[in-house]
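Tutorial, part two.
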Amino acid sequence: MLIGRYSAREACLLFTLVVSLFKVLLFNLYRSTDFEVHRNWLAITHSLPVEQWYHANDSQWTLDYPPAFAYFEWTLSAIAVFVDPNNWNYDSWKTVVFQRCSVIVSDMLNACALFMLLSRILPDKNTVFTCFVASFTLPGLIMVDNIHFQYNGFLFAFQILSIYFIASESYIKCAFSFSLLLNLKHIYLYIAPVYFVFLLKVYCFSTKMQFCLFNFIKLAGCVVTVFATCFAQFVFDLPQVLSRLFPFKRGLTHAYWAPNIWALYNTLDVALAKVSGVKEKSGFVSGVVDEHRHLVLPQVSPITTLLLTVTFIAIVLFFAWKRLDSTVEERSNKPRSKGTPNPVEMNTIVFLCSTTLVAYCSFLFGWHVHEKAVLLILVPFTVLVYAVNSKNKKSPKKSKLETSSSLSQYINLSYVLCLVSGTYSLFPLLQGIFETPVKLLLLITYLLFFIPYLDVPIFFEVLFL
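Running the prediction step on this input gives:
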C-alpha cells in the first residue's frame, strides 16, 4: 500500500482513527454473554473490597481472569460509575456505549505496539503501513472484540510489545511485558514455553553454551516481581483465585467446539454411536459446558490432552533451540560474512514462527479450548507472513527478516488457509441476521485487499501441484 507523502506514523495514526470510527457503527449489533460478564466484573470490582472479588457469586458471571485484569476492570469501573451507577445486573444504552468505547480506546495500545514492532523489523514505510493495516483489521479480532465483546486487542498489545523488545534486544523488558500479559489473561500460558526457551537460550547461554547465572537471576527476578505485585492482595486467597482461573471440570470441549482434533473426535464418536444403534444422545452436542462421556470411543482425560500438547510443543521448541543464537554480548562482535542475516533479526523470525506453531499445537490438542483461541495463532502469524514477504517488494532497502522464496510461498498458503478457516470458525459467535452480512463483509473485504499482496497465483500453483 502506497502512502505517498505521509510518514508511516501519520498514515497508521490516520488509519487507526478511521477504523475506530467504523467500530462505532457496530455498537448496536449482537452482544454476547461476554458483554454481561464484563459488565458484572465492573460491578464486582467497584462495589466490593478487593479481598472479596474472587469470592463474589451474586451473579453467574464470577470473576475468573487473573488479578491484573481485575485491576483493569476496577480502573474502568471508576469511570463507569459516572456514566451509569446502576451497572449490577443492569443493561442500559449508556453502559453499552461505555463498554464498547472502552474496547476501542484500549485498542489504541495495540496500535502503538504494532507500529513500534513493524517499524523495527520491516524495511520501508509502505510495508510497515500494509502490515499494520492487515494486523489491526484482522476480521476475527474485530468480530470477537467489537461485536461479540472482549478486550483481545488490548491484551495482544502486550504480546506485540514483548516481540518488539525481542527485536530490540531488551530481554528483561520482554520478560516484564509477557509476565504482565499472563497476569491479564492466563490463556497466554499456551505460548509461555516459547518465551522460556527463547530467553533461556538467547539471554542465559553464551555461544559456547556456558550458563550465565546472573542473567538468569535478573530474568527470574523480573518475572517473580511482576507476579508478586499482581497477586499481593490475594496471597491469602490463592487457592480460591486458582480455582477460578483453572476450572478443570468444564470438560474436553467448549459448548461450541473449537475446530481442533477433539471436535473431529467428538464427531466420530457421535457417528459411531448412530451406526451402532446407541439411543443415548451425546452430551457433547447438548450445548452445555460440563464433563461429558463419549458413547463409543475411549474417554479422553486432561492428562492425555496435556501429553499430546507437550509432545508437539517439544518438537517445535527443539528446532527453535537449534536455530536460535545465544547471548547478545558475545555475538554482537562476531564478524559476519556478506549476506548473512543479523542474528537478532533471525531470532525474531524464529520466535514468530515458534509462537505461531506452539499456539497451533495448544489449539489443536488442548483441554477445553475456546474457539476464540485461534486469535493466538492469527496475530503473530500475520506479522510473520508480511515480514517474510516484504523482501519480494520493490524497496530501496532489503528486508530485515529474510527467508527463501519457496518457503515464503508455503507460509503464504498456510496463512491464507488458517485465516479463512479460523475466521470462518468464529462466525457462529455472531448470531442474528444483521450480523451475517457484517461478518461476511469483514472477511471478504480483508481477503480482497490483502491476498494480492501475497501473490495469489502462487497459492493456486502450490495448491494444485
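The mean pLDDT is 86. In part three we will examine how such features are distributed along the chain.
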